[in-house]
Structure formats: C-alpha cells, structure tokens
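Reader question, answered in our methods column.
A reader sent in the components of a multi-part assembly and asked whether the whole thing could be modeled at once rather than chain by chain. We filled in our standard form and ran it. Here is what they sent:
COMPLEX SIZE: two components
ENTRIES:
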Amino acid sequence: MTFEQWMRGTLDRVETALEHYLPGTNVAPARLHEAMRYAVLGGGKRVRPLLCHAAGELTNTGASAVEAASCALEMMHVYSLVHDDMPCMDDDALRRGKPTVHIQYDDATALLVGDALQSQAFVALTADGNGLKDAQQAALTRELALASGSVGMAGGQAIDLESVGRKLSRPELETMHRNKTGALLRAAVRMGALAGDKPSADNLAALDQYAAAVGLAFQVVDDILDVTADSARLGKTAGKDAQNDKPTYVSIIGLEASRELAVQLGRDAHAALAPFGARGQRLAELADLIVNQVN
Amino acid sequence: MTFEQWMRGTLDRVETALEHYLPGTNVAPARLHEAMRYAVLGGGKRVRPLLCHAAGELTNTGASAVEAASCALEMMHVYSLVHDDMPCMDDDALRRGKPTVHIQYDDATALLVGDALQSQAFVALTADGNGLKDAQQAALTRELALASGSVGMAGGQAIDLESVGRKLSRPELETMHRNKTGALLRAAVRMGALAGDKPSADNLAALDQYAAAVGLAFQVVDDILDVTADSARLGKTAGKDAQNDKPTYVSIIGLEASRELAVQLGRDAHAALAPFGARGQRLAELADLIVNQVN
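And here is the structure of the entire assembly that came back:
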C-alpha cells in the first residue's frame, strides 16, 4: 500500500468513526449536537488521528481500538480550536475554511461545544465495545487527560496568553509549544501504541523522542506558513501571529533558519524510529508530510 | 458517629484530597494553577463529594478510592460554575462569597481554568496509586464523562440557554434540570458505589431512584432559595432567576407548592434507600440536609 492509499483509507475510517462517536442531531439537545458536528466533521487535516493510527501499526492494535483513541484525540483538539477562536482568546472568524463556531452560532454555544467535546473524548475512550480493554481505557484516559490539562494543552494556552506582546527567548517559546501543541501530538503517538500490545518502556521512550521532534517541526512549519501562505490555503486567518504580536520561530530566528530547523527536526524524527524498522514506515512518512509543507 | 461528625470528617478529607489533586502554584504555569485553586479551594458546600462518600459506605470503598472520585466530581462541578459565570453565559460576579474567576482574573483565564479543571477531573480518576483498580478507573471515567457532556451537564446548560425568556412546561423544566444538575448528582452517587465492591444492578437502580429524587429536590430548593434568601447567605447573587426571566419551580408552580414538592422528594429519596437498611443512613441524612434548607 502506498502512503497516499494508507492516508486515504485512514482518513475515511476516522471520518466514519467520528460520525459514530458524535451524538446525532436527532438526540437532544439538537442544536448543541449540530454545533458539535459542525465543529468536528468535514474539515481538518486529522494530524492526531493519523499519528495515532501510524503508531498503532507498531503494536498490532485492533481497528476499533485505534479508532476510539483517534476520535478522542480529534475531539480534544477541536474543542481547543473552538475555545481558542472565541472573542476572549484569539477572536478569530475563520477555521478550516468555515466560520468559527461562535460566529456561526454564538459565544455561549461555542463555550458549550468545547466543553462537551472534551467530555465526549472521554466518552469515546471508555465506551462499551470500543475494542479497548479496561486497563487500556484507563491508561489512554490518563494520557489524554494529562496532555490536555494545565500541564499540557490548556497550560500551553495560558503561557501563550501571557506571552502576547512580550519578547520570548527561544527556550521559552519551545516550552510554550511543548505544552500547547506538543503534548497532544505526543499523546496521539503514545495512545496509538498503547491501544495495542503493551509497548516496552524503551519503545515508548523512542516514541516520545519521535513525538518531540515532530511536535516541534509541526509548530515551526505552522509559524512559517503563517507568513508565507494565504488564508485560503490555511483555512484560517493568515498573518495572525504578527498581527497579534505573538512570538514565533520566524520572528525569533528568521524565516530561513526556521526552514532549516524544520528539516533537521524531520531528520531527528526519522532517527528516533530506528528501533522499529519497517514498522515505523507510516510514522516516518507522516514526519515527512509535515516538514515538506514548507519545502 | 453523629451526622455532624461524619460531615466534618468527610469535608476535611475532601479538602485535603482536593489540595493533593490540584497542581501546586509552584508548578508552571503558576498563574493558571493559582486560578484553578482559587476556583476550587476554600468554599462550596461539596454536595457531590458528600453524596459520593455516603454512597461509598454501601460498597466498602477504600478511603483513597472514594477521595479520588470525589475530587473528580468537585472539579467537574467547579469547572461548570466557572464557565457558567462568564459574561457570555450568566455573567455573574459573585460565587461562593468571592468574586468569580473572570472578575478576579480575566475572561480568558476563566475559560482555561474551566477547561483545565475538566481535564484534571479525569487525571484524578486515573492517577497512579489513587486506590481505584483499572476497571474502576474506566467505569468511573465513563460515568463522569457521560454525566458531564452533551447528554448531561453541558447539554442541560444548552437547554437552559434556549429557555431564557420562554415559557417552559413543568416536564420541560424537569428535563433541563435532570441534565443540568441531576446528571452529575446521579454520577456522584453511582461513582461512590462503583468505587468499592461491585454493586448489583438492582442496587444501582435503587441508587438512581434516590439520585433522581435528591437531584430534583436540590433544584427545587435552589429555586426557592433564589427568591427567599439573600446573596450573603447564598454566596452568589440572589434573585438572578427572576431578573434573567428564567423558568423556575417557583415561577411555574408557586412558592408553597414548591416547598411541598421538596418535602415529598425527600420522602421519595428515603423510600429508594430501603434495600440498603442501616448502610443507607448517610445518604438519607444528606437528603434531609438538602430538603431542610427551606423548612
């Protein structure tokens, strides 16, 4: 199977699983469920589900187990986007090429959509018959909760807020991103592996190294695209970072050095996968996909 | 042990456990952790932790297991208060006798405090060494996630928003409250029982009946107090329901009928506890405590 075929098949399965794990609009409260589906379905690159599926290839995961984990990750990610776009945060009107939830609905609905998507992520992880054993449900909940909370994604968002208009050093910038986006990307990789045969501590450590490189590359690429791509390509408002005076890799080390850094991080990601041999192929290809966006 | 002694001892343990399960202000991001602690510690009646502990008496729960469950419930409850108080929701300035989080800090911080408290609830439920077995961690996560999400608390909030200024029937009002507050109170009772020896389906059904009566009584009492008590006693702004033109039991069936309903629901709660004999004592006493606030 080529990478493109694997991607297409995986994305189809993820979309079907998201459909399944999101309450239908025939379930009350209908408007809230409609807004949750508006936020999650029909858009997004599904980077976390792809990483989760790719890591799942290392440990013989069952299809439904890795799908439940993927859906939980994507719901968690989308909740963070919905809340980040709200007026009291980044105040953004465009996301994944569509009006943001608070624009399409209203602020209160956007707040509740995010809140309910976070809960729904844990519903998916612990749903009866989702293919995950009790111990896996508990372990994946632990991974996802830590990655999403105050020492992960939400914490990174808090650091981000405090950094607006302030000059960050490069280590400070990395700390922020390690929390804000890195923690959930790392969780995606770990959860994929943990959804199958129990991985060794060494293998989890190797995956952490891979995820650290990919997570940072992801952010560097995002910073580059914010200045080089237009809103139509991004599906969100371009140039927001400079406009909001947010520190980025481009503002701190410049565009060319940022490009070189992304390439180096891609190499680091490949190196971390050495213990897995051919089984690490999809993870390696995903690292390339992320880095190659800016080359 | 008298009920008062049991209450005092339980509340002390809950407070200590919350201290333990909330990240310290020495952990980055310090300001977010300070705000989370501001929201959770030093206030609140801790109704859900008390119900959880009382139900735990039925199934020989270990102390740390029921404490972890109680903390998760209280964090989930407090996150909902923090978000509900925000300007785009109820826009309230006073909670538990203190300025609300968005007043004390800012809107963005209040948003993140709520988001991170929800995650932290699941961290507590799945923390290593919290006294809950894998299967219990998974089961309690399932209970809490369903009770908090779009078919529970967040869903009830969405129905509440849509009902402002609209005339609700009594069944509609009950549906709203069964989601908005009832679901989490029910989860408190069930999680307490599930944190110990596996309860029978019959016993869980009896607990559901108890929780349904107590949950409704809780809301009826809240509606009565909103018109009969002052802000100092409530620790939150009194008279808000009428001011916001929100449907309440008092507005639909009147004050006297509301008082009678609360008393009847207290009797229903007692009746549901029959299968448990003397072990149901604390749950019975808690039902009385809730109902007696208005008598």
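What stands out: The first strand of chain A starts at residue 94 and ends at 95. The first helix of chain A runs from residue 3 to 21.
Send us your own complexes using the same form.
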